[in-house]
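dude i think i finally got it to work??
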Amino acid sequence: MRNMLFLVMLMLFVPLSAQSVEYSWSNAKGESVSLEKFKGEPVILHFWASWCPPCRTEMPAMDKWVKAHPDVNVVMISLDSNQAYAQEFYADKGIQAPLYMGAMRDTSRLGVRGLPSTIIINAQGEIAKRHMGDLDWMDEKISEQVLGWL
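look at this
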């Protein structure tokens, strides 16, 4: 009985090895894009929606951050139910990054439980970091932290 209890406790505290992540989204033309496109490279997946107040505040600064870091793979994925809402938001805020659309049911497998959410996928295709909530993308310390997650 003690051995069984020890094994159960051990399993609770031993870190699990990272698993490869599979995820796909659509570009503005409705074509499917997947993480396979970034095989061997780290990528930031950022989930947002036009109806999300923190997202509305965060996205213009994130767009500037993406422009300032062209060497970083960043995919900003809208979880709006209608692409027109996301397009209107991009136009209103002057966001230049490519518009991608995803489905909330698919993102839940990645551990997305709220918006905005940022997930770092490492070069091995594994989740390296999850951050739920908005980030001050123009803050140098936050920027360094995000770059460190890669």
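The longest helix spans residues 53-68.
im so relieved honestly
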